[in-house]
Design brief:
Layout: E1 35-36, E2 45-55, E3 60-65, E4 73-75, E5 81-84, E6 100-107, E7 113-122
Length: 132
């Protein structure tokens, strides 16, 4: 049967069994750690961790990254979008130690800090163990 084997090479139309070309897409990693992409121009990094402290006067969040990532601080600027896990807005002053954080942006020159484009925060439940 001609359609079952993909048709002939002289056919002007593709058969129903012809596969589309495979393209790669970036997806969030299931493991919480710093992720860097290797494609050119895509210097987006994601850091997932536990907030250690917030230094509001310097716009810095110290982070204990999960799974051994090397990024230990998240740098916040005027363009950084900060929100809660439910999508509602949040300010830097409302982030506290033991909150879970996912930050996306670009690494700084030294590679130890992330200049955040967006930050998502899951507030720690009072009485819960940090990082649990």
């Amino acid at each position: 049967m001609l359609a079952a084997c993909g048709g002939s090479s002289t056919s002007p139309t593709a058969s129903p069994t012809t596969r589309a070309p495979v393209t790669q897409t970036r997806a969030a990693s299931a493991t919480p750690s710093a992720q860097t992409t290797s494609s050119p121009g895509a210097d987006e990094v994601e850091v997932t961790g536990i907030v250690g402290s917030v230094i509001a006067r310097n716009n810095v969040i110290s982070v204990r990254p999960l799974e051994g990532a090397s990024v230990t601080k998240v740098l916040v600027d005027a363009t950084t979008v900060i929100r809660r896990a439910d999508g509602s807005p949040l300010s830097l002053a409302e982030i506290h130690a033991s909150d879970r954080i996912i930050a996306r942006g670009a690494l700084n020159d030294r590679g130890d800090g992330l200049v955040a484009r967006e930050i998502t925060v899951q507030t720690a439940v009072p009485g819960a163990r940090p990082g649990g």
